[in-house]
Amino acid sequence: MKAYRTINTALQALGRNPMRATLTALGIIIGVAAVIAMMEIGKGSSAAIERAISSMGANNLLIHPGTAASGGVSFGGGTATTLTPQDCEAILQECPAVRSAAPDVQARTQVIYGNRNWVPLSINGSTPAYLDVRSWTDMAEGEMFTDRDVRNTSKVCVVGQTIVRELFSGASPIDKKLRIQNVLFRVVGVLSSKGANMMGADQDDIILAPWTTIKYRVMGTSLTNVNQSSSSSGSSTSTEVNSLNRLYPTSSLNLYPVPSPTQMADTPQPVRFTNVDHILACAQSSDEIPLAIRQITELLRERHRIRPNEAEDFSIRNMTEMTKTLSSTSLLMTNLLLSVALISLIVGGVGIMNIMLVSVTERTREIGLRMAVGARSKDILMQFLVEAIVMCLAGGIIGILAGCGGSYLVTLLLRWPTETSLTAIVVSVMVSATVGISFGFYPAWKASKLDPIEALRYE
Amino acid sequence: MPLIELRDICKTYHIGELDVPVLKGVSLSVNEGELVALMGASGSGKSTLMNILGCLDHPTSGEYRLGGQEVSRLSADGRALLRNQKIGFIFQNFNLLPRTSALENVMLPLSYTLEGLSDREAQDRAMTLLDRVGLSERSHHEPSQLSGGQQQRVAIARSLINRPSLLLADEPTGNLDSRTSAEVLHMFQELNQQEAITIIIVTHDLQVAMHAKKIVRISDGQIVDGDPSGGGLQVGGIVEGYESSDVTT
Ligand SMILES: Nc1ncnc2c1ncn2[C@@H]1O[C@H](COP(=O)(O)OP(=O)(O)O)[C@@H](O)[C@H]1O
Ligand SMILES: [Mg+2]
Fold first, then answer.
1. A1, A378, A452 member nearest B111 (Cβ)
2. Which among B84, B95, B100 has the least Cβ separation from residue A374?
3. Which of 45-104 (B) contact A at CB < 8 A?
4. Is B109 close to A373, i.e. CB distance below 8 A?
5. Where is the MacB-like periplasmic core domain (chain A) (predicted)?
6. Where are the domains of chain A?
7. Up-side HSE of residue A36: CA atoms within 13 Å toward CB?
8. What is the ipTM metric for this complex?
């Protein structure tokens, strides 16, 4: 029996009872429509949740330098100076799983504007990419400094909302000049408010400037001082014992006559090997965090010429807890939708099975007749199976349209974020066909096993 | 040359523990082109025999050769193919598909034919047959819009669509009045004479029986009298008269 004849026969049989066919298909229509709408709405919301969580830094990777030690005395995490800005550039270029990376140089010192002073929680030297890494690209006012400013060691900065409040009493700080460690910085932008981080630290209490400026103009003279009035007296206690530090020009080691702070600020020395405090990186997505870590580790080991058995001179931290929350959130979402989908489709499938069983009983004589004129049991099986599949597929297609329409309406009227999902459509078509086959099979098999004489005699 | 050869056909139904022998050793041979009337009382096993002849059922024991081929042990699919290709079946209650046009009813067996006829050819063939039974004007009517005689003529057209060599009609006029019965029976005679199709009709109508080349009487599952000249109606008594009032299947 030719395929199109089988389909034709099935369509005719369904057409003989259009109301029943429609009502039966309705189960599948509603099921598939619900699945599609749920999937699209769910995908939209889980994307929104993911965006929200990743803006909290879930995808961030923090690359710390290793631990310096001298004569069995360890100086704690991050005391070695092994990370360079070039490492940062290399990570960006050679690790595909990394979306963006920014070096980070930190200082903690007093900031002065007019007759006010303030010690921000963090004064960060970085590149414009810093904001991208931290998903903080929307500026409240003005603009971020540029890569050119970084190259030129420009004395510009952007400030957080807390700084605006504390130093400028809420007035616009754009083009005003604030003083850090006797260096005058022009404020070019104001960051949008980000609030506290997970640990409760105020993230808006921040000044961002080119890392070169912080490194050479500010930190060259103030390593750990908070109070700039006593800048000359203090230096890091570790310099005395940390012989490693002597290799690096940033330490206040007196190989040469120490230039005065003013001299330093005015004529920053070109340095061959500059280290940064951290490198901040951001993975393409939360799924790719382990991959990003692997790629970065490989790259840095190579760049730092670390032999296979040697320990790394850096460490990478991620926001495991947040990432876990993120993935468990979306997993929960997916499972929830999956169970809803399954239940509604099973209900639809049972409906189809029920109607097909009724239909087989009702058409017993027809089956007997078809067998009497030469239908093999295979033909009968196919006929009823195709009927069920046609119903399911038609229901599936209408359901897809209804579901897409539904989620479109939801976006339009409720402004919930939705995302059209091609997989949802493909999956529902396949699932409705599968439902048709699996729930249509038993009735069809029952029909095909009828005895022609018995069937013909059936009242 | 005999088209049908039955040797010692037995059919026993089992109802629970009980064995119900219905056919008890039927031997019969029918030549090609013969018109045979099968007569017998209700419950004597006519339909059972017809079902075996039509390959709808297989005998409990015995041999059945159709056109030289042993068919009693064929598989279900093999019998289906035979029913489709070689045998036309006509039922007492017509058995047309409801809510389906006469034309499509006639084309039904073609759906299960292996040779691929195009839709055009299939329709042409069905139309020719409907024309032949005088229903070309009604080709798009559904069974419910046709009289009993017309329905039976559609059924005859359907049985002929695959050009069978054997037509089996089990009380084809059982549900028809005398005038339409005559029409239908006339049609069988015509088919037998013009196309040389072998036809076996179960009937109670002596008139038809007289036209038949051969009358086979069956009583209690056994052939009683194969004599074409007829003689009396000793088997089962004179029950039915000239018109069928018997509605056994
Ligand atoms: N499927 C069956 N199961 C049991 N007994 C049957 C079955 N079909 C027919 N019989 C019995 O076989 C006998 C012959 O039936 P049938 O061939 O239909 O007679 P008829 O000559 O009236 O057509 C009847 O007694 C009937 O009860
Ligand atoms: Mg009968």
1. A1
2. B84
3. 51, 54, 56-57, 76-77, 80-81, 83-85, 89, 91, 95, 97-100, 104
4. yes
5. 22-224
6. 2-53+325-457, 60-239+257-318
7. 30
8. 0.89
